[in-house]
Each structure stands twice: as C-alpha cells, then as structure tokens.
Amino acid sequence: MRLIAATLGFSAFLISACAPSGSGELASDGLLVSSSAAVEAVDARTRTVTLRDQQDGSVFSVTAGPEVRNFAQIAPGDVVEVEFYESIVLEMADPQDTGEALIMAGAARAPEGERPAGEAIVSTSVVVEVVSYDAATGEAVFRLPDGTVGRSSVAPALRSFAAQRRPGDRVLVTVTDAVALSMRPSDG
Question: Exposed/middle/buried for 98, CB within 10 Å: 0-12, 13-18, 19+?
Fold first, then answer.
C-alpha cells in the first residue's frame, strides 16, 4: 500500500502543480476515505469482485477493467485496502483564462506477477462564470464555457468563498478524484 499511497500523493502534487492559477484567492475542501474490504466472490467472466466492508459490513461490487493485472490471483477471503480521495478547489480565475476545460489523468498498476494493486487519478479544471449564489440554500448557478447553465450545492467549507462572488465573476473550479487499491493476503 505504501507504493500506491506514494504514487497517489505524487499524482495529487503533480495535478496541483500543473493546474492553472488565478489571483491566489481560493477555497478548498477534500475528503480521504480509507477502508478494508474482504473479497466475498469473484466472477472471472465479468471481472466483477464482490466485497464486504470490514468496518460497517456493507456489501458492494466493483468491476476490474482489462488494465487490472493479475486479476486471476483474487480469491474469496482476500482483503483489499481501498483509498478514495476527492477534492474541490475554487479559485478566482485570471480574466485571460480561455475557459476551456483541462483534464488530467494518470494511473499505475502492479507489476506482472505481483499481488493485484493499482491507482487512478482524474483532475478536471474549468473556468465558470457566476450567475448567482443563494447563501440561504448554498446553491450556486454558473455558466460553463459552452454557455450551458448549471446548478450545484456548494460544500459548507466553500460557502464563504461563494458568498463573496458576484454575477459575472469567473471562478476556476478544479475537481480531483483518485482511488488506490491494493491486496494483502487473507488472515486465514
């Protein structure tokens, strides 16, 4: 898991270092969830793995794409370590920003013959124009570069930033999702 965590940390650094930068006024919010889950079933034909969260007992399934190496090693009783990270950063946009979306992605996987492991990260940055913000409900209305108008609930940690924006302000929104998975031998 250390290799995956290090790769995940480096990827997050790389994305933050490459993201466009506005005036420096920004707000951010993020969440890292770490969990262990036991493999309950493996369907080799569909590459679906059924997992049981070891903390709350919930059962969920994931489908491993063809890029997941060493899939045949996964067996009931194995334990999967899962880390999921999601963040959002709001920053005042430079008036010169074109508004075109910037999408960056990266992935890593276990070497041939090792236990199954991998990580993936996707970061999307886009400049939006503020249409309105309702501080009472926390709902923001914004215009995308293609003219489409969208609505979104603003996370509590970002509401102070949103309340200071006026119609016509341009905001750089960066959303990053990352997931890391690794397997360890079962205890039994």
Answer: exposed
Model confidence band, residue 184 (pLDDT cutoffs 50, 70, 90): low
Higher model confidence: residue 107 or residue 16?
Answer: 107
**DSSP states of 51-119:** EEETTT--EEEEE--TT-TTGGG--TT-EEEEEEEEEEEEEEPPTT-----EEEEEEEEPPTTSPPEEE
Nearest to 12 by CA among 182, 177, 126: 177
For residue 177, give the nearest of 104, 100, 121 by alpha carbon: 121
Taking only the tens place, the pLDDT of each residue in 11-33 is: 443 334 344 444 557 788 888 87
- Residue ranges of the domains in the chain? 2-184
Residue type, 4: I
Question: How far apart are the C-alpha atoms of 107 and 69, rounded to whole Å?
Answer: 13
Greater model confidence, 110 or 56: 56
Amino acid of residue 31: L
Q: Are 175 and 122 in contact (CB under 8 A)?
A: no
| Residue ranges in the chain assigned as alpha helix (H) | 2-18, 159-163
Query: Rg for the chain (alpha carbons), in Å?
Result: 20
pTM: 0.65
Token pair, residue 184, equals 């360890």
